[in-house]
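<instruction>
Derive structure tokens from the sequence
<data>
Labelled lines for chain and fold:
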Amino acid sequence: MPDEYRRDAFRAVKAEAGARREEAIRAAHEAFSRAYLLERARHAAEYERASVRWDVRKSAPNSEAYEEAWRALQAAKQPPNHTQARAELDRAIKTADQAYNAELTQFGQALVR
């Protein structure tokens, strides 16, 4: 019977730790989604500004700002950069996993003693 009590206690701790882990991962995904959408909006606004500048300058290829407007438009055509948001999501998930594993390890060691 005592082994059964230990298993029940471990299952309860595992379930609680798992719930905390899932909540942390959910929050990390929400933060990623917000950062992703913010970057997409920033990128769309940047593209719109570059497009307007190019529309104004393209009829005068001899002007000084022609080449600059062309380069800005080409740069704005590149996809938005989500590297930082993805790295933060990865870091948050790894942290949640480490906390979960540490909690289970700590409880498991306490059971063995």
Notes: Residues 2-112 form one domain. Residues 43 and 80 are 6 Å apart (CA to CA). The chain has a mean pLDDT of 92.
